[in-house]
Each structure stands twice: as C-alpha cells, then as structure tokens.
C-alpha cells in the first residue's frame, strides 16, 4: 500500500498561498482526478448505450439484458471499475477532506464529454465556459487555502457509532421533509440526502482500505466493507429518486457541493483531519460560494438540460 511511503514534503506556492504536500497526498490528488475523469467517461458511455435501448424496456429486467450485449455499455462498466479502484487508492493515501471535494470537477468534465459526443462541432462553443472555469479555479484555490491533512487511517468504533447515529438522524429529517414536498424542493432535499449517503460511503471505504492494509482476512472479517456496500446502494437509490423528482438544477448542486462539505465533516470527526482556520475561513468561504455559483450555472445551461441523463449519472462510484 502507498501508506508505507515516506512522507517527503513537496512545497508549492500558488498566488502567495503556501501549499505543503506529502508524496502520499500528491498521489491522492492524482488518483482523485483519475476517479473524476473515469466517472465522467463512464457516464457518457453508459448514457450512449441506454439511449439505443427501446423505450418499452424502461424499468424492466430486459433493459439490463439488452445493455449487457452492447460493447459501449460494457466499456462504461469498465470505466466504473477503474474509477472505483482509483477512488479506493485516493482514500487510502489521503484525507477525505482532500479527495471528495475534487469530485466536484466531475460535473463540468461530464458535460464537456457529453457535448463532444453530440457530433455538433459548434456545441462545444455553447458550453458555460465561464461557470466551468469559475468552478475549476475555485475548487483548486479552495483546496490550496484549506490545505486539508489527515492524522489517522482508521476511525475508532465509538466515533463510528456516533457518526452513524447522527447520519441516520440527519437522513431521517431530510427524507421526511422531502416526502412532504413536490417538484424542485423535493429534488433538492433528496439530492442532499444522496450527498450525505455518498459521503458516508467514502468515509466507510477509507476505513475498509485501512483494513485491507492490515491483510485480506481483516478486510473481509471487519464490518466496514459491507457497510460501504449498503451505504453505496442507498446513495444510488436516493439519487435516482432525486433525479425523478425534479430538474438537474435542483438536485445536482446539492449533490455535488453537499457531498464535499459532508465528507469534510466526516474527515474531521472520524479521522481527525484538519483544515486551516482563522482568517483562512474568509477565502475558503469565498471559494465555496464560487463553486456553488459555478455548479448552479453549469446545471442551468441548455446543454446540461439536453444531456441531463448523462450529467446526472455522474456518481457512478461511491462518491
């Protein structure tokens, strides 16, 4: 495992912000970016295959039987597997507070790739480039300013019990509120619920990777990997309901930004991860505001509406 690497520091200065990266954290960033790109490619390939299936097979077992025979869909599944391995490697080598926010970049990447598959050479010019650039720069700047770092590789059982109880209570409140609404508010609330479930899945996966580092027996005899699977399925279920309830504009920003923020809270409470505080909070909040602005405007763009099913399928792995 890369956790055995000597943490040689790498110093980078970005606009007078001093960033301190270890070799593990640099590898973590690379794997997180690979995850985002792989997920984006997987979403586009799977959507392309699904669009070729007759409409009458929707919500039927025959849909899957048809997709399995299509090479483009199998290629998409292959990219999902690549993304899953890359995310596991990222979480094994770096803090959750660093890994999960990077997945925000998956939204614009998916939209760009989906646009390229349209076949219209003028479509790429119609992309919301201003929002894409703002989101990307704000993400990089925000992470550089926050400088997340991790302290421990596995959470204590007591910490997990508290976190799981708090998560269950949060999900119950949000889902109950969603059930009592319709349209865009329901989509937004269910998007937030899905974000929390994806963040929990990532937190569990990080602990499972620590178990694997101890040995295969520990990996399969401890509960973390099985809880990861359950949380992942639950997250996928909530996401599909969010997408069914309303538009991409309502659900996607809540999913994208909510996943990042909740993941940071898990990293701090479970793994003793730290972020810069004090006056650093001002540029961090500014970056967060810019990210929200960018995500909303990306989701509102006409091309995102046309490629809605593609963009919405972005969380192909356990984000």
What features would you describe in this structure?
The chain has helices spanning 23-50, 61-68, 71-93, 96-102, 106-116, 129-146, 157-179, 183-214, 216-221, 224-245, 248-271, 281-300, 302-306, 308-312, and strands at 9-14, 17-22. The protein is mainly α and 319 residues long. The chain has one domain (2-312). Strands 1-2 form a two-stranded antiparallel sheet. Helix 1 packs parallel to helix 4 (96-102), helix 7 runs antiparallel to helix 8 and helix 8 packs antiparallel against helix 10. The longest helix has 32 residues, at 183-214. The radius of gyration is 19 Å and the shape is globular.
Query: Percent of residues in helical segments?
Result: over 70%
Kindly, what is the distance between the CA atoms of the first and last residues, rounded to a whole number of angstroms? 21 Å
**What's the Cα radius of gyration?**
19 Å
Strand order of the largest sheet: 1-2
Give the structure's gist in a few sentences.
The chain is mainly alpha-helical and 319 residues long.
């Amino acid at each position: 495992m890369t956790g055995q690497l000597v943490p040689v520091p790498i110093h980078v200065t970005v606009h007078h912000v001093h960033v301190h990266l270890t070799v593990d954290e640099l590898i973590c960033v690379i794997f997180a970016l690979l995850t985002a790109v792989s997920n984006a490619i997987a979403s586009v390939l799977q959507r392309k295959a699904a669009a070729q299936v007759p409409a009458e097979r929707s919500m039927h077992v025959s849909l899957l039987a048809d997709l399995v025979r299509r090479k483009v869909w199998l290629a998409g599944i292959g990219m999902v597997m690549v993304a899953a391995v890359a995310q596991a490697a990222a979480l094994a080598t770096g803090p959750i507070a660093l890994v999960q926010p990077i997945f925000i970049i998956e939204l614009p990447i998916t939209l760009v790739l989906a646009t390229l598959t349209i076949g219209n050479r003028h479509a790429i010019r119609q992309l919301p480039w201003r929002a894409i650039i703002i989101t990307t720069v704000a993400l990089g700047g925000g992470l550089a300013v926050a400088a997340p770092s991790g302290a421990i590789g596995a959470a204590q059982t007591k910490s997990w019990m508290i976190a799981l109880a708090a998560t269950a209570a949060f999900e119950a409140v949000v889902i109950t509120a969603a059930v009592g609404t319709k349209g865009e508010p329901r989509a937004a609330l269910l998007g937030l619920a899905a974000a929390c479930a994806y963040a929990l899945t990532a937190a569990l996966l990080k602990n499972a990777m620590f178990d694997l580092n101890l040995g295969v027996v520990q990996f399969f005899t401890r509960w973390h990997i099985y809880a990861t699977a359950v949380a992942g399925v639950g997250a996928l279920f909530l996401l599909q309901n969010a997408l069914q309830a309303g538009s991409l504009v309502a659900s996607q920003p809540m999913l994208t930004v909510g996943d990042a923020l909740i993941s940071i809270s898990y990293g701090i409470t479970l793994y003793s991860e730290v972020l810069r505080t004090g006056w650093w909070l001002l540029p961090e909040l500014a970056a967060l505001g810019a990210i929200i602005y960018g995500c909303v405007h990306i989701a509102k763009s006409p091309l995102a509406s046309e490629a809605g099913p593609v963009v919405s399928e972005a969380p192909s792995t356990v984000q």
